[in-house]
Specification:
Layout lengths: L1 E2 L8 E3 L2 E3 L6 E6 L4 E7 L3 H20 L2 H17 L1 H12 L3 H19 L9 E2 L5 E9 L2 E5 L5 H14 L3 E5 L7 H12 L5 E3 L4 H10 L5 E5 L2 H14 L3 E5 L5 E4 L5 H11 L14 E5 H16 L19 H16 L3 E4 L18 E4 L6 H4 L6 E7 L2 H8 L4 E2 L1 E5 L3 H10 L4 E4 L14 E2 L2 E2 L5 H5 L2 E9 L2
Parallel strand pairs: 8-9, 8-11, 9-10, 11-12, 13-14, 13-19, 14-17, 16-17, 19-20
Antiparallel strand pairs: 1-4, 2-3, 4-5, 6-7, 7-23, 12-22, 15-16, 18-21
Helix pairs in contact: 1-7, 2-4, 2-6, 3-4, 4-5, 9-10
């Protein structure tokens, strides 16, 4: 919605200046806990995006000419500045996303660590020498693309923003970054920090909806390298738009319908704990890596389901700023309506609703996008709640009899992002890890990401890998040079 209120304005960062949009139009940002407007950001036009790209292109040669160690030092300064403003950013993020403060406290630190991680990898952007002939020296070098476009989702705005700029900047690119339209306010702090610490044009931030802002960035002819994190439908739309505009390198970190497979030799108590932890209820299940499908061997089904239902029903919903709250509201009205529609589809298709599935009782929850944490039992692979990413606090529980059936269920969706396998038998664990079509697999664990390990999905869950050296190198092109020696 475009609004005209002048309260709590956030500005875009273009060419080192904090600016409004050319059309002077704005998007409101709403607190999902009570539906109150808490700020507004510019609704960038294609002309605004073009100004940002032009500024980035102008700044890129100078940025690439800075030695890697010096670029790394500037990234570390960004990390330090984020930490200094951590309390401010945390409050903004909680109000803007609805995620609970107890868990979101780690996001600012995670953002700073991402910047520091890539700050130390500059000398890893290496070429090769190739003995292709006796009278030449054949070498390769890696060069930055130039201007990189990055678009991130609403569930962890500042953490994803820092990760989005870290690798491309360290590789010598400049960046035009689009925050999520649903939760954009922390981008104002990032913009101020980048303005103060980086040369003008090195980082540019444009706010607005996917259409026209994101589309203009994807289609811009001077942006060859694009990375997007978000849903599969939007990822596919970006691929189409990019292909229509030119030949571009697009990487996508998309959705997941991730299985947690529990084998019969595991402890029901630990499986119940893992199932709840893996669902990420602290951010309402709004995580692409959430293990939203719980696949239990038939011998575990009853005991684990009972424990899960009891504990999910006890989760404390409340003010996301309260350290005692264990779950907050869904991020936006549009997304809330989609999640509720999928819950209704589960009921209509015959899944058994064991807990949740409705708005919580009490005056506190009359406004806002609140949904009780929800568990469905007796779910079949053909149901919508088994096939579609809900991206909400909804756990689907399945029963299986033999290993082949478990793997078939696990691989029955279009997604292949993460998987969690629980067993004490090493051969079973490795066999299942190889058989499951997912890009990131935990054995006897859930949710954790580890520095330097590549994260990304198979099938429609994405293209490319993030969080490691693969991501850094993906922001470079290989140039081959032949030198005649005789």
């Amino acid at each position: 919605m475009i609004v005209t209120s002048t309260e709590n304005e956030v500005r875009m960062l273009i060419d080192g200046k904090l600016v409004a949009s050319e059309a002077n139009q704005w998007l409101e940002s709403v607190n999902p806990a009570d539906e109150q407007t808490i700020g507004r950001v510019p609704a960038a036009t294609p002309a605004d995006v073009d100004r940002a790209v032009v500024a980035a292109e102008k700044a890129q040669p100078g940025w690439a000419a800075i030695e890697p160690a010096a670029r790394g030092k500037l990234l570390r300064k960004l990390a330090s500045a984020l930490r200094e403003r951590g309390d401010e950013v945390l409050r903004i993020e909680v109000l803007d996303t609805g995620n609970t403060i107890a868990k979101m406290k780690g996001d600012v630190e995670g953002a700073a660590r991402a910047l520091e991680f890539y700050a130390g990898l500059g000398t890893e952007i290496k070429g090769e020498s190739i003995p292709a002939s006796a009278d030449h020296l054949h070498i390769t070098v890696r060069e930055p693309y130039g201007v990189v476009g990055r678009i991130v989702p609403f569930n962890h705005p500042i953490k994803f923003a820092a990760s989005a700029i870290a690798a491309p900047l360290m590789a010598g690119n400049t960046v035009v970054f689009k925050p999520p339209e649903q939760s954009p306010l922390s981008s104002g702090v990032l913009g101020e920090i980048c303005r103060d610490l980086l040369p003008a044009g090195v980082v540019n931030i444009v706010t607005g909806n996917g259409m026209p802002t994101g589309d203009a960035l994807v289609r811009h002819p001077r942006v060859k390298r694009i990375a997007f994190t978000g849903s599969v439908p939007t990822g596919r739309a970006i691929q189409r738009a990019a292909a229509e505009a030119g030949v571009k390198h697009v990487t996508l970190e998309l959705g997941g319908k991730n299985p947690l497979i529990a084998f019969p030799d595991t402890d029901p108590e630990k499986i119940a704990e893992a199932a709840i932890a893996g669902m990420n209820f602290a951010w309402q299940g709004q995580s692409c890596g959430s293990t939203s499908r719980l696949l239990l061997h038939e011998s575990l089904y009853g005991p684990v389901l009972k424990r899960v239902v009891e504990r999910v029903a006890e989760l404390r919903l409340g003010d996301p700023l309260d350290m005692q709250s264990q779950m907050g509201p869904i991020n936006s009205k549009r997304h809330y309506e989609r999640v509720c529609a999928l819950v209704e589809s589960g009921i209509a298709e015959g899944a058994r609703l064991t807990t949740g599935g409705k708005r919580p009782a009490g005056n506190r929850f009359k406004r806002g996008y609140w949904l009780e944490p929800t568990v469905f039992a007796e779910v079949k692979p053909s149901m919508r709640i088994a096939r579609e990413e809900i991206f909400g606090p909804v756990l689907s529980v399945f029963s299986w009899r033999d290993e082949k059936e478990a793997i078939d269920i696990a691989n029955s969706t279009e997604y292949g992002l993460t998987a969690s396998i629980w067993t004490h038998d090493l051969k079973t664990a490795l066999r299942a890890a190889r058989a499951v079509k997912s890009g990131y697999v935990w054995i006897n664990g859930t949710s954790a990401h580890f520095a330097g390990t590549p994260f990304g999905g198979f099938k429609n869950s994405g293209l490319g890998r993030e969080e490691g050296i693969d991501e850094l190198l993906s922001y470079t092109e290989v140039k081959t040079i032949h030198i005649r020696l005789h």
